[in-house]
Amino acid sequence: MADFDNLKQLQELDLIIDGLRREKVNLPEKDKLDSLCKELDRLTNYLSKKEEEFHKVEMKQKKLEGEIDTITNKVKSEEKRLYSGVISNSKELGAIQKEIESLNNKKDETETELIEHLDLVDNLKGVLVKLNNQKEEFLIAKDKLEKKTNSTISDIDIKLDELCKQREETASLTDNDLLTLYEETRAEKDGLAVVELKDGICQGCGMELSAEEADKMSHSETQILWRCEHCRRIFLR
Ligand SMILES: [Zn+2]
């Protein structure tokens, strides 16, 4: 009976379609891509913190350099005053010398601070270069994985399109009542509505048919629809 053949074909197609849909949802590339994106987010956050830190450190470097410039200019102008010959008062000259000395001390201290600070600037620069390289590598890997995932999905979609067309065609050739029964059973039985009966055992639920039922079945016409007495799945005949 053509309808039974159609049912068999429908079930085969539906199992493949279900499998492909599951495959599409559970692509291992998707998990990899998810964890890669999470790592990339973490790295980007860490990088922006370090960039902020670097910005502060750079500001401090400029501040220290500015302070040294100011002191240097002050020393120059004090020295100019000292040697200008305008001031002859020894007390006043002594005060200028003292001021120059104190300014030079301050300059030394600030320069030492700057040298120490430049170590920090260099360290942070190195960290930023490393993090930016890492980020670049992540972005390349992400791009590659995205392309691979999209191509896998589009391959599956092409197969699904073809199979769904076949399914539609087969369904249109199947008796409406039988099709409804098939769809309802499939919905209730986790996608598996049509099964084989092998050595008296239903291949859907694994239960054995009662002797009475098996006997009735063996004496019935093949065109008659038989369903498992336990799970109500449709038997292929
Ligand atoms: Zn069964």
Write the layout of secondary structure elements.
Layout: H1 2-25, H2 28-83, H3 90-172, H4 176-188, E1 194-195, E2 197-198, E3 201-202, H5 211-218, E4 234-235
Parallel strand pairs: 1-4
Antiparallel strand pairs: 2-3
The chain binds zinc ion.
Zinc ion binds at residues 202, 204-205, 207, 228, 230-231, 233.
Written overview of the protein:
The chain has 237 residues and is mainly alpha-helical. The chain has 2 domains: 19-173, Helix Hairpins (Orthogonal Bundle), CATH 1.10.287; 181-235, no CATH class. Helices cover 78% and strands 3% of the residues. The protein contains 5 helices and 4 strands, in the order H-H-H-H-E-E-E-H-E. It has helices spanning 2-25, 28-83, 90-172, 176-188, 211-218, and strands at residues 194-195, 197-198, 201-202, 234-235. The strands form 2 sheets. A two-stranded parallel sheet has the order 1-4. Helix 1 runs antiparallel to helix 3 (90-172) and helix 2 packs antiparallel against helix 3 (90-172). It is rod-shaped. The protein starts with a helix and ends with a strand. The mean pLDDT is 95. The chain binds zinc ion. Zinc ion binds at residues 202, 204-205, 207, 228, 230-231, 233. Residues 202, 204-205, 207, 228, 230-231, 233 line the site of zinc ion.
